[in-house]
Design brief:
Layout (H helix, E strand, L loop, with lengths): L6 E8 L3 E10 L4 E8 L6 H12 L2 E11 L7 E3 L1 H18 L6 H6 L5 E3 H9 L2 H66 L7 H15 L2 H18 L6 H22 L2 H21 L4
Parallel strand pairs: 3-4
Antiparallel strand pairs: 1-2, 2-4, 5-6
Length: 293
């Protein structure tokens, strides 16, 4: 099963008092290249986030952004400790009613009581309690990105099969044309040899050596067999439980080597045109294999 390195995933949590948004983007890379951006705190959690990225996405150039906002917080050195102030006021208001005291300055009195205000450091401490929720959202976004990669992998697999079928079709055409090519070569050799053997400086031993070398140089039988074998191997790897982009790229290089050799040996205009078409399809395979995990 193929898995692309191109992916996207996002997760969010929104309430009247809290806003959290996580977004993950992934593209191809030879190695695991991660970046983490956080708005609203939690920059100190970078190592934990990156460990989770590496565990789920494995490889690729991956960017994760986190946006966090506690809508109840204020950007001041201190802020009212709302819940505590309300509790103070309720208690003192009840006591004032009970003893019949004046309530006019009650609220101002409450604001002067201990811990009626909390500092920014306390606000940051409050934010830490949200980290469990944030981490769940990070994991969800990463898993969605991984699922996106699987879907992209299916599209890549279809493209690979299309290219392989085209190469295989051209190989079949070459195999069908090869006897005609061989006959043409044979006729040219016979004509040239007829003139060559009439020479008074004719050396039969040297002639036989040159003939064998020439025939071997033009024979593409082994290249055709090896090329078909590499195509079959590529298909086999596409169906592997953990298909490797690096391995597919290596096989594509072997395919290219056989195609190039056929083109060099063919000495036939039509076959060489088909070789060019095979190379075009192979370039598509190489390009796409770079995006396979």
């Amino acid at each position: 099963m193929l898995k692309s390195m191109t992916g996207f995933g996002s997760a969010a949590h929104e309430t009247e008092t809290l806003s959290i948004a996580v977004e993950v983007r992934s593209v191809n890379s030879k190695f695991l290249d991660m970046s983490y951006r956080s708005v609203g705190g939690f920059l100190d959690k970078e190592l934990e986030v990156k460990n989770l990225i590496g565990k789920i996405l494995e490889r690729g150039k991956i960017h994760l952004s986190l946006k966090f906002a506690d809508k109840t917080s204020v950007q001041l050195p201190i802020r009212p400790n709302t819940n505590l102030i309300k509790a103070y006021y309720r208690e003192l208001e009840g006591l004032a009613t009970e003893v019949g005291a004046n309530k006019d300055d009650l609220f101002r009195l409450v604001l002067g009581l201990p811990e009626a205000y909390i500092s920014t450091s306390q606000v940051e401490s409050e934010r830490d309690k949200y980290w469990v929720l944030i981490l769940e959202l990070v994991e969800k976004a990463l898993l969605l990105c991984d699922q996106f990669r699987l879907e992209e992998g299916k599209n890549l697999e279809k493209q690979f099969h299309t290219c392989l079928e085209t190469i295989e079709e051209r190989l079949q055409w070459i195999s069908e044309k090869d006897p005609e090519r061989q006959q043409s070569v044979r006729e040219r050799l016979e004509k040239q040899l007829g003139e060559f053997t009439k020479s008074e400086h004719f050396d039969r031993n040297r002639f036989e050596q040159e003939l064998i070398y020439y025939i071997e140089k033009l024979d593409i039988s082994e290249e055709k067999v090896r090329l078909q074998s590499h195509l079959d191997y590529f298909r086999q790897e596409l169906q592997a439980p953990q298909a490797s982009g690096k391995k597919l790229n290596f096989i594509s290089q072997e395919i290219g080597r056989e195609i190039n050799t056929i083109g060099a040996k063919a000495n036939h205009a039509l076959i060489q045109r088909w070789v060019v078409e095979m190379k075009e399809e192979l370039e598509k395979i190489k390009e796409q294999s770079l995006n396979v995990l």
